## 1
Amino acid sequence: MTSDWQAALPLLKCPRCFAQLATTSSVATETSGPVEGLICANADCRLQYPIRDEIPVLVIEFARELPREEWQAASKPPSTNTP
Ligand SMILES: [Zn+2]
């Protein structure tokens, strides 16, 4: 299933630091178990935005700052061009 916003994902930016956002499929949270969300690609920001009813909620107040380890586990490493 592809939501409309996923096509626009490259255009979405973190409202706090304006870095790119990446999808994550399973981030374990303390409260509700694995959830889908968008995470900020900025290692110094690490906000995770929830997706509600298939709509990403890019609101800083609703975002959660992931611990660094969790952020690294959740964020897919950017595609490197290492030969
Ligand atoms: Zn950010």
## 2
Amino acid sequence: MAISTKFLSSFKSTNMLLRTSSILFFIFLGTFFCFSQSTDRKSYRNSNGKNIYLPLGKISFADTVVDFYIGTPKPLRKFRNPEESLKEPDYTSYSIPSFFSLGCGGNLTVKFTDNGFMNLAGKDIYIFEVGPAREPAKVEISKDGIEWIYAGEIDGGRSVLELSDQNIDTTSIFYYLRVTDLKSLCVSKSAGADIDAIAAINSVIHFDMNADVLFDVGKSELKPKSIKTLDSISKIMIKIGEANLSIVGHTDSDGTEEYNYGLSYNRCYSVREKLKNLLGNSSDFKFSIKGLGESFPKAPNDSDINKQINRRVEITLLPPNDYYGNIP
Ligand SMILES: [Ca+2]
Ligand SMILES: [Ca+2]
């Protein structure tokens, strides 16, 4: 749900901006619900029979194919469907084409749409590679699909990545991942790495909400209309079941710094209380709230539109504390 500053600044009227933000937000929620029905299991078996635990469960998998290139020599035709690399792993045997073969030197770019991922404690990404030969591949990640960062390599014995190994920062949220076959084993019938699924172990779900949708100017009591938005978020939380929830508030530069710290904190407090109320006793969440006032603007506070961009509440679901406690 990140909306770029460039995109936002192209809007002429404040109302249009608000309306469009809301529409995009609900399209996002709709997308989420399509993908998150049914199961709450959080461990997925790799092709060696080992269970891989994903703290946020089913949403943690890559969701759409952005781009792909099939290398040469090419794999058999039946292994050339890149969609087979999405969602949960479903490999049963090598004869069933439930995975995507990159071909020698080929690549695949996927996007996570109902989750992002971060470099947090422990391993961060798991690639379910299958097939008789495990071909080495390079992995890169991106926040926006434009600027890419090297994230490491997978090979026959290692399908898991720790982003700290490449000194990747611990505050960015990534949404894109690219796997490129390294051309070292180009003879098998499924030439190139064979990808069944791509999982973010350290998945996060981030909502960047315009504060004007939730609050009247200078107020920290939620508008009646905001309940629909928070109710949608609480439904996602209930599906996840257990997570840490960070709520961070920001203001524009109108008013004193002290006033803005107070306002942004009080707004986070209202959001937390409402979410707790909507969740009831059905889930297990640990909340943290932080009011950052005007100290982290997204845009210079030099126009009404930019000020509106800066007035925001960011909600992020992260893997639960219990999970971090169990990391060796
Ligand atoms: Ca996903
Ligand atoms: Ca990590």
